[in-house]
Amino acid sequence: KWLDERRTLGIRSVDDDECRLRLHCAPIWNLPLEVVRPRDIQSLVLELRQKKRKDKSGALVTALAPRTVRHIYFALQGMFKDAVAEELIVASPCALKKGQLPPKKDKDPTWRASAVFTREELELVISSELVPEDRRVIYALFFVGAMRFGEAAALRWRLLDAKQRPLGKLLIAHSYNTKSKTVTETKTEVPREMPVHPTLAKVLAAW
């Protein structure tokens, strides 16, 4: 019922939350809401943190990234918080001690520093004729316009003011949800104005 209500409200993370709950919360999934205690949640988080898998070499490594464990816990926390609001339970069992939730960090601490495009690579993906034109345009919106995919996909020409000086202006007010196939508000739910870089202006003019 909780998941269905979130779908009705257009909550973007509902499918991810459902997967997190079903795949990783088996120890409490079939328990009545009112019998779940903080120790059950604490045990679950500890189990998730200690979960192991074998890598290609056969060595045991941590199965879940710290961010994944946090996402699972926050999905549970949201569900129990809403259960309190619905008066299904008196208090939420999501009460962890300091240090029980893993810190917000990447599973591989080195990848983020390398997950960048060089200036030359950027120029290539937005200008090379080997890249289809529609891709060049969307890449220019991503990189030069600093937009998320959904924001770029929801843009309309009426949101572009090319007459502004010294730079044109784009109003980013909506986002396209690939799961529900609908246009919704942006992630922050606050429209923002984006200056149009001269390079992006040339790409948009050509498009």
What are its keywords?
alpha+beta; two-stranded antiparallel sheet; 207 residues; single chain; globular
Write down the secondary-structure element order: HHHHEEHHHHHEEEEEH
Query: How many helices does DSSP assign?
Result: 10
Q: Mean pLDDT across all residues, rounded?
A: 88
How much helix, percentage-wise, in residues? 40-55%
What does this structure look like?
- The chain is α+β, with helices and mostly antiparallel strands and 207 residues long.
- The protein is globular, with a radius of gyration of 22 Å.
- Helix 2 packs across helix 5 (66-85).
- 45% of the residues lie in helices and 13% in strands.
- The protein starts with a helix and ends with a helix.
- It is built from ten helices and seven strands.
- It has helices at residues 2-8, 14-24, 26-29, 38-50, 66-85, 111-114, 119-127, 133-143, 149-153, 198-206; strands at residues 52-54, 60-62, 160-161, 168-172, 174-177, 182-185, 192-196.
- The strands form three sheets. A three-stranded antiparallel beta sheet has the order 3-4-7. The chain has a two-stranded antiparallel ribbon with strand order 1-2.
Task: Write the topology of this structure.
Blueprint: H1 2-8, H2 14-24, H3 26-29, H4 38-50, E1 52-54, E2 60-62, H5 66-85, H6 111-114, H7 119-127, H8 133-143, H9 149-153, E3 160-161, E4 168-172, E5 174-177, E6 182-185, E7 192-196, H10 198-206
Antiparallel strand pairs: 1-2, 3-4, 4-7, 5-6
Helix pairs in contact: 2-5, 7-8, 8-10
